[in-house]
Amino acid sequence: MDAPYKPSVKLLFYLSDVPKIIASAGKMTLSHRDVATIFGSMDDTKVVEWIRELVRRGHTSPFEHSIYVFEVVCSRVASHQIVRHRIAGYTQLSQRYSENFLRLFVKSIASYLGREDLYVDSPRNREGYKSYVHLINIFIDSGPEYDTLLDIVSTAFIVPPNVVKNRDRSFLESLVVAVGRYYDVLAKGYTYEDARFLLPQAIKTRLLVSMNARELIESFLPLRMCIRAQWEIRYIAWNLWRQLMEIHPDIFRYIGPRCIHIDSRVRKNLCSLDEYLDGRCSFEISRCPELVDREAISQCLKTTSRDPYEP
């Protein structure tokens, strides 16, 4: 299980027959038979062959006959990037009506201090929010150790890799102070809608995302698995790809950053992402869309596949 300070993604729902549906749709464009007949006659070998050929030719409209629903917990920094992918459905936790992650944050502080008596589970008035501010101030004054600070901050915030690697205490303390100010203005009678202006973009949010395979293989994964993508959304994209590989490897084995996407268009025989990563397959393009020369693309690919939190 990932550390709580990391973003997370979890594939929830999908159509189990998607590979066969996509292969059948692709074959239908060239066949005199109806889709039901094609689907019934499509064996596993043919499914693999048709999907490989569709990917190689860039004929991806059949991939729209699919749906993948996944839940993402990330910062507001990353969520703003995710929702820029137009061909998708989104539902996001509202900051106007909920501060669920922040309540968990305060509850963790109360538990650490042994002051559960000051914690109000569902504050309905200014006094309840004042007790939250009081708890946060006690916590700051107690001078918690770095690891304790990280554990508590992680209940409500995504923490960047460099902060974790550098054990940057002041960065974490700034997040704690911001929450104190947030609850301070709520105690003064401000609404969630206005108080949220004080919150850092590192605050956790939750999204339910629906994408079809075409959006995933043509846009989201190639763009967001790339080394040029922001580290958080890149981390999400790679972890989503790994989960997609567990259920539909026939579709997603050839998918990766844009260098893979472009190289697949010029190759006679496709290579899987794993084959590129372990050196069994070399790039044929002279350079990638980010202007990395052919000789350096493989190392770039290995770098972008790594967990940004690892040394």
TrEMBL record:
KW Metal-binding (keyword) present: no
Top EC class of this enzyme: transferase
UniProt xrefs under PANTHER family: FLAVIN-DEPENDENT THYMIDYLATE SYNTHASE (PTHR34934:SF1)
EC number: 2.1.1.148
Top-level division of the source organism's lineage: Archaea
Binding-site positions, dUMP: Q81, I82, V83, R84, Q92, L93, S94, Q95, R96, R196, R224
Catalytic activity: dUMP + (6R)-5,10-methylene-5,6,7,8-tetrahydrofolate + NADPH + H(+) = dTMP + (6S)-5,6,7,8-tetrahydrofolate + NADP(+)
Binding site for FAD: S61, R84, H85, R86, Q92, N212, A213, R214
Similarity comment text for this entry: Belongs to the thymidylate synthase ThyX family.
Cofactor detail note: Binds 4 FAD per tetramer. Each FAD binding site is formed by three monomers.
Keyword Flavoprotein: yes
Upper classification of the organism: Archaea, Thermoproteota, Thermoprotei, Desulfurococcales, Desulfurococcaceae
Source organism of the structure: Ignisphaera aggregans (strain DSM 17230 / JCM 13409 / AQ1.S1)
Oligomeric and partner information: Homotetramer.
A Pfam family reported for this protein in Swiss-Prot or TrEMBL: Thy1
Pathway info: Pyrimidine metabolism; dTTP biosynthesis
Active-site residues (renumbered): R224
Entry cofactors: FAD
SUPFAM superfamilies (UniProt xref): Thymidylate synthase-complementing protein Thy1
GO BP: any one term: dTMP biosynthetic process
Protein's UniProt name: Flavin-dependent thymidylate synthase
Function: Catalyzes the reductive methylation of 2'-deoxyuridine-5'-monophosphate (dUMP) to 2'-deoxythymidine-5'-monophosphate (dTMP) while utilizing 5,10-methylenetetrahydrofolate (mTHF) as the methyl donor, and NADPH and FADH(2) as the reductant.
Encoding gene (name): thyX
Keywords: FAD, Flavoprotein, Methyltransferase, NADP, Nucleotide biosynthesis, Transferase
GO molecular function: flavin adenine dinucleotide binding; NADPH binding; thymidylate synthase (FAD) activity; thymidylate synthase activity
InterPro entries cross-referenced by the UniProt entry: Thymidylate_synthase_ThyX, Thymidylate_synthase_ThyX_sf
